[in-house]
Amino acid sequence: MTDPWLVVGLGNPGPAYAGNRHNVGQMVLDELARRAGVAFGSHRSRAQVADVRLGVLPGGAPGPRVLLAKPLSYMNVSGGPVASLAAYLQVPVDRLVVVHDELDIPYADVRLKRGGGEGGHNGLRSISSAVGSKEYVRVRVGIGRPPGRTDPADFVLKDFGTVERKELPWLLDAAADAVEMVVLEGLEAAQRRFHAPVG
Protein backbone atom coordinates (compact mmCIF):
# COMPACT_ATOMS: atom_id res chain seq x y z
CA MET A 1 0.00 0.00 0.00
CA THR A 2 1.36 3.43 -0.89
CA ASP A 3 1.99 6.07 1.73
CA PRO A 4 -0.87 8.46 2.48
CA TRP A 5 -0.71 12.14 1.60
CA LEU A 6 -1.07 14.97 4.10
CA VAL A 7 -2.80 18.08 2.70
CA VAL A 8 -2.78 21.07 5.04
CA GLY A 9 -4.93 24.18 4.67
CA LEU A 10 -3.54 27.22 6.45
CA GLY A 11 -5.59 29.79 8.35
CA ASN A 12 -6.47 31.05 11.81
CA PRO A 13 -8.91 29.20 14.08
CA GLY A 14 -12.39 30.36 15.06
CA PRO A 15 -15.38 31.97 13.36
CA ALA A 16 -13.96 35.52 13.57
CA TYR A 17 -11.27 34.55 11.03
CA ALA A 18 -13.21 32.07 8.90
CA GLY A 19 -13.92 34.45 5.98
CA ASN A 20 -10.51 36.16 5.98
CA ARG A 21 -8.25 36.11 2.92
CA HIS A 22 -5.62 34.48 5.17
CA ASN A 23 -7.96 31.50 5.61
CA VAL A 24 -8.40 30.67 1.94
CA GLY A 25 -6.27 27.52 2.40
CA GLN A 26 -8.79 26.17 4.88
CA MET A 27 -11.65 27.10 2.54
CA VAL A 28 -10.03 24.95 -0.16
CA LEU A 29 -9.89 21.99 2.24
CA ASP A 30 -13.57 22.49 3.05
CA GLU A 31 -14.26 22.16 -0.69
CA LEU A 32 -12.18 18.95 -0.89
CA ALA A 33 -14.03 17.49 2.10
CA ARG A 34 -17.38 18.47 0.56
CA ARG A 35 -16.47 16.67 -2.67
CA ALA A 36 -15.54 13.54 -0.71
CA GLY A 37 -18.71 13.73 1.41
CA VAL A 38 -16.83 13.74 4.72
CA ALA A 39 -16.74 15.99 7.78
CA PHE A 40 -13.76 17.18 9.78
CA GLY A 41 -13.14 15.76 13.25
CA SER A 42 -10.70 16.64 16.00
CA HIS A 43 -7.27 15.01 16.29
CA ARG A 44 -4.78 14.98 19.15
CA SER A 45 -2.28 16.85 16.96
CA ARG A 46 -4.30 20.08 17.46
CA ALA A 47 -5.88 19.97 14.04
CA GLN A 48 -9.22 19.23 12.46
CA VAL A 49 -8.79 16.28 10.14
CA ALA A 50 -10.75 14.40 7.49
CA ASP A 51 -9.58 11.05 6.10
CA VAL A 52 -10.53 10.76 2.42
CA ARG A 53 -9.81 8.96 -0.83
CA LEU A 54 -9.11 11.81 -3.18
CA GLY A 55 -10.23 11.66 -6.77
CA VAL A 56 -10.60 8.60 -8.99
CA LEU A 57 -7.81 6.59 -10.62
CA PRO A 58 -7.95 5.39 -14.26
CA GLY A 59 -10.32 2.45 -14.35
CA GLY A 60 -12.58 3.95 -11.70
CA ALA A 61 -10.73 2.88 -8.54
CA PRO A 62 -10.73 5.34 -5.63
CA GLY A 63 -7.76 7.68 -5.49
CA PRO A 64 -5.03 7.55 -2.84
CA ARG A 65 -5.63 8.03 0.86
CA VAL A 66 -5.29 11.67 1.89
CA LEU A 67 -5.55 13.23 5.32
CA LEU A 68 -6.95 16.75 5.05
CA ALA A 69 -5.82 18.86 8.00
CA LYS A 70 -6.72 22.33 9.28
CA PRO A 71 -4.41 23.29 12.19
CA LEU A 72 -6.21 24.66 15.24
CA SER A 73 -3.18 26.79 16.08
CA TYR A 74 -2.75 30.31 14.81
CA MET A 75 -1.18 30.69 11.38
CA ASN A 76 2.25 31.74 12.67
CA VAL A 77 2.66 28.51 14.67
CA SER A 78 1.13 26.07 12.17
CA GLY A 79 4.30 23.97 12.13
CA GLY A 80 3.69 22.12 15.39
CA PRO A 81 0.40 20.46 14.39
CA VAL A 82 1.69 19.76 10.87
CA ALA A 83 4.89 18.10 12.13
CA SER A 84 2.89 16.05 14.66
CA LEU A 85 0.51 14.78 11.98
CA ALA A 86 3.32 14.02 9.54
CA ALA A 87 5.14 12.01 12.22
CA TYR A 88 1.97 10.22 13.33
CA LEU A 89 1.11 9.20 9.75
CA GLN A 90 4.75 8.69 8.74
CA VAL A 91 4.19 10.96 5.77
CA PRO A 92 7.41 11.83 3.93
CA VAL A 93 7.93 15.47 3.05
CA ASP A 94 7.38 14.77 -0.66
CA ARG A 95 3.77 13.78 0.19
CA LEU A 96 3.08 16.95 2.18
CA VAL A 97 0.98 19.57 0.38
CA VAL A 98 0.32 22.98 1.96
CA VAL A 99 -2.49 25.18 0.61
CA HIS A 100 -2.10 28.87 1.45
CA ASP A 101 -2.90 32.44 0.49
CA GLU A 102 -0.35 34.26 -1.65
CA LEU A 103 -0.11 38.07 -1.90
CA ASP A 104 2.32 37.97 -4.82
CA ILE A 105 -0.09 36.19 -7.15
CA PRO A 106 -3.09 37.98 -8.75
CA TYR A 107 -6.46 37.27 -7.20
CA ALA A 108 -8.07 34.04 -8.46
CA ASP A 109 -4.84 32.62 -9.93
CA VAL A 110 -3.46 29.32 -8.61
CA ARG A 111 0.23 28.45 -8.78
CA LEU A 112 2.18 25.45 -7.53
CA LYS A 113 5.76 24.82 -6.53
CA ARG A 114 7.93 22.56 -4.41
CA GLY A 115 10.40 24.09 -1.98
CA GLY A 116 11.92 27.54 -2.25
CA GLY A 117 11.50 30.52 0.04
CA GLU A 118 8.48 31.36 2.14
CA GLY A 119 8.05 34.89 0.77
CA GLY A 120 7.43 36.34 4.22
CA HIS A 121 4.58 33.89 4.89
CA ASN A 122 4.89 33.05 8.58
CA GLY A 123 2.73 29.94 8.31
CA LEU A 124 5.10 28.45 5.74
CA ARG A 125 8.13 29.53 7.77
CA SER A 126 6.73 27.73 10.83
CA ILE A 127 6.07 24.54 8.84
CA SER A 128 9.52 24.54 7.21
CA SER A 129 11.14 24.89 10.62
CA ALA A 130 8.98 22.23 12.29
CA VAL A 131 9.32 19.56 9.59
CA GLY A 132 12.98 20.36 8.96
CA SER A 133 12.58 20.87 5.22
CA LYS A 134 11.25 23.30 2.64
CA GLU A 135 10.78 20.56 0.03
CA TYR A 136 7.02 20.18 0.33
CA VAL A 137 4.48 21.14 -2.33
CA ARG A 138 2.76 24.50 -2.00
CA VAL A 139 -0.59 25.20 -3.66
CA ARG A 140 -0.47 29.00 -3.75
CA VAL A 141 -3.89 30.64 -3.92
CA GLY A 142 -3.63 34.18 -5.27
CA ILE A 143 -5.25 36.92 -3.18
CA GLY A 144 -3.42 39.81 -4.88
CA ARG A 145 -1.71 42.85 -3.37
CA PRO A 146 -3.61 45.24 -1.09
CA PRO A 147 -4.88 48.45 -2.67
CA GLY A 148 -3.18 51.78 -2.07
CA ARG A 149 -1.30 52.02 1.20
CA THR A 150 -3.19 49.24 2.97
CA ASP A 151 -0.90 47.26 5.24
CA PRO A 152 -0.58 43.68 3.91
CA ALA A 153 -0.93 42.38 7.49
CA ASP A 154 -4.33 44.10 7.74
CA PHE A 155 -5.35 43.10 4.22
CA VAL A 156 -4.95 39.35 4.79
CA LEU A 157 -6.99 39.53 8.02
CA LYS A 158 -10.02 41.04 6.29
CA ASP A 159 -12.77 39.14 4.52
CA PHE A 160 -12.88 38.99 0.74
CA GLY A 161 -14.60 41.99 -0.84
CA THR A 162 -17.96 41.91 -2.61
CA VAL A 163 -16.49 41.56 -6.11
CA GLU A 164 -13.97 38.96 -4.94
CA ARG A 165 -16.70 36.88 -3.31
CA LYS A 166 -18.42 36.48 -6.67
CA GLU A 167 -15.30 34.73 -8.02
CA LEU A 168 -14.42 32.92 -4.80
CA PRO A 169 -16.34 29.68 -5.50
CA TRP A 170 -14.49 29.37 -8.83
CA LEU A 171 -11.14 30.00 -7.12
CA LEU A 172 -11.78 27.41 -4.41
CA ASP A 173 -12.86 24.92 -7.06
CA ALA A 174 -9.69 25.54 -9.12
CA ALA A 175 -7.41 25.23 -6.07
CA ALA A 176 -9.15 22.00 -5.01
CA ASP A 177 -8.64 20.68 -8.56
CA ALA A 178 -4.95 21.58 -8.26
CA VAL A 179 -4.59 19.57 -5.04
CA GLU A 180 -6.31 16.57 -6.62
CA MET A 181 -4.08 16.79 -9.68
CA VAL A 182 -0.90 16.88 -7.56
CA VAL A 183 -2.00 13.75 -5.71
CA LEU A 184 -3.25 11.85 -8.77
CA GLU A 185 -0.90 12.96 -11.56
CA GLY A 186 2.06 14.68 -9.89
CA LEU A 187 3.28 18.24 -9.43
CA GLU A 188 4.63 18.69 -12.96
CA ALA A 189 1.30 17.78 -14.57
CA ALA A 190 -0.51 20.19 -12.26
CA GLN A 191 1.96 22.97 -13.06
CA ARG A 192 1.47 22.44 -16.78
CA ARG A 193 -2.27 22.87 -16.39
CA PHE A 194 -2.38 25.74 -13.93
CA HIS A 195 0.59 27.72 -15.21
CA ALA A 196 -0.43 27.60 -18.87
CA PRO A 197 -1.31 30.97 -20.40
CA VAL A 198 -5.00 31.51 -20.96
CA GLY A 199 -6.16 31.82 -24.56
Description of the structure:
The chain has one domain: Rossmann fold. Helix content is 36%, strand content 20%. It has six helices and seven strands. The chain has helices at 24-36, 79-89, 122-131, 152-156, 162-185, 187-194, and strands at residues 5-9, 41-43, 47-53, 65-71, 96-102, 110-114, 137-142. A seven-stranded mixed sheet has the order 2-3-4-1-5-7-6, with helices on both faces. A hairpin with a 3-residue loop joins strand 2 (41-43) and strand 3 (47-53). Helix 2 (79-89) runs parallel beside helix 3 (122-131). The chain is globular and about 50 Å long.
Short description, anyone?
Hydrolyzes ribosome-free peptidyl-tRNAs (with 1 or more amino acids incorporated), which drop off the ribosome during protein synthesis, or as a result of ribosome stalling. By secondary structure, the protein is of the alpha/beta class.
List the helices and strands and how they pair.
Blueprint (H helix, E strand, L loop, with lengths): L4 E5 L14 H13 L4 E3 L3 E7 L11 E7 L7 H11 L6 E7 L7 E5 L7 H10 L5 E6 L9 H5 L5 H24 L1 H8 L5
Parallel strand pairs: 1-4, 1-5, 5-7
Antiparallel strand pairs: 2-3, 3-4, 6-7
Helix pairs in contact: 1-5, 2-3, 5-6
Order of strands, widest sheet: 2-3-4-1-5-7-6
User: How far do the termini sit from each other?
Assistant: 41 Å
Give the total of domains: 1
Which spans of ≥5 residues are poorly predicted at pLDDT below 50? Answer: none
Radius of gyration, whole Å? 16 Å
Mean pLDDT comes to 92
Largest sheet: number of strands, sense, barrel closure: 7 strands, mixed
Structure summary, number of beta strands: 7
CATH level 1 class label: Alpha Beta
At the third CATH level, what is the topology name? Answer: Rossmann fold
Helix content: 25-40%
Number of helices, counting only DSSP H or I runs of 4 residues or more: 6
Can you tell me the CATH architecture?
A: 3-Layer(aba) Sandwich
Q: Structural class, judged by helices and strands?
A: alpha/beta
Q: Into which percentage range does the β-strand content fall?
A: 15-25%
Instruction: Please identify which CATH superfamily we are dealing with.
Output: Peptidyl-tRNA hydrolase
Q: What is the ordering of alpha helices and beta strands?
A: EHEEEHEEHEHHH
> So what's the overall shape?
globular
Keywords: Cytoplasm, Hydrolase, RNA-binding, tRNA-binding
Active site: 22 (proton acceptor)
Family: Belongs to the PTH family.
Protein name: Peptidyl-tRNA hydrolase
